Amino acid sequence: MAEQQTPEAEPEPEADVRQSFKGRIKSEPTLGTTQKGKAKFYAKVEQRHWRYEDDGTYTRLPNTYHDLVAYKGVAVRAYKKYAKNDFFLAEGRMEEYLSKSTGQMKQRFVATAFGHDMAHTDYEVDRTPRREQTQRPAAERDAATRQPADREVADQQMDQQSIERQIAQRPAEREAPAAFTPPEQRPGRQQPAMGL
């Protein structure tokens, strides 16, 4: 009798872990282009440092200043969303480069993803799918730039418009995909072939 061989399970992929950078934007961000014409975001950033002491306290160390860059779509989105003194978290990698102004090797952080630091930033999350975001009325998109007094009125209007839009888009009755219906209700289901 031949032994039955069980196929080996493929190893589960490891988590995609990258370097991160937590800091504060200290210069006015700029959006330029690379020599190849791709978008390039640049900002001088500050990073705070602390030393943990044996007695359980922290000692503040001097801040350090670094160059932060991002390319392509990340660069454009970062330029639109970030301003001087914003706290952020970024994912990416440290990279050495030759400074054109000094001729010396320097380091910069190349960000592949950005986010505001929730510990220092208050904001609201817009969970509207991207396709719908581009179709929002101009009044809704510009509400974020209005004065605080106008913002309350705009927020109430946006909330009402958002609710109306969700109601209009809601289907009368949601149907589960065929894969999630009970087996006896699936259309075109064949009985298993026995004895072949």
Characterize the structure shown.
The protein has four helices and six strands; from the N terminus they run ββββαββααα. It has 196 residues and is α+β, with helices and mostly antiparallel strands. The protein folds into two domains: 17-123, Nucleic acid-binding proteins (OB fold (Dihydrolipoamide Acetyltransferase, E2P), Beta Barrel), CATH 2.40.50; 124-169, no CATH class. It starts with 18 loop residues before the first strand and ends in a 27-residue tail after the last helix. InterPro entries: NA-bd_OB-fold. This is Single-stranded DNA-binding protein.
**CATH architecture assignment of the largest domain:** Beta Barrel
* Global Rg: 26 Å
Please give the CATH class of the largest domain.
Mainly Beta
Query: How far do the termini sit from each other?
Result: 21 Å
Considering the protein shown, what is the CATH homologous superfamily of the largest domain? Nucleic acid-binding proteins
- How many structural domains in the coordinates? 2
Give the count of helical stretches.
Answer: 4
- What would the CATH topology of the largest domain be? OB fold (Dihydrolipoamide Acetyltransferase, E2P)
Write out the strand line-up for the largest beta sheet, numbering strands in chain order: 1-3-4-6-5
The main β sheet shows up as:
5 strands, mixed, barrel
* Series of secondary-structure elements, N-terminal to C-terminal: EEEEHEEHHH
Overall 3D geometry?
extended
Helix content: 10-25%
Mean of residue pLDDT values: 77
List the uncertain runs.
144-149, 169-182
- Structural class, judged by helices and strands? alpha+beta
Total beta strand runs: 6
Percentage of residues in strands: 25-35%
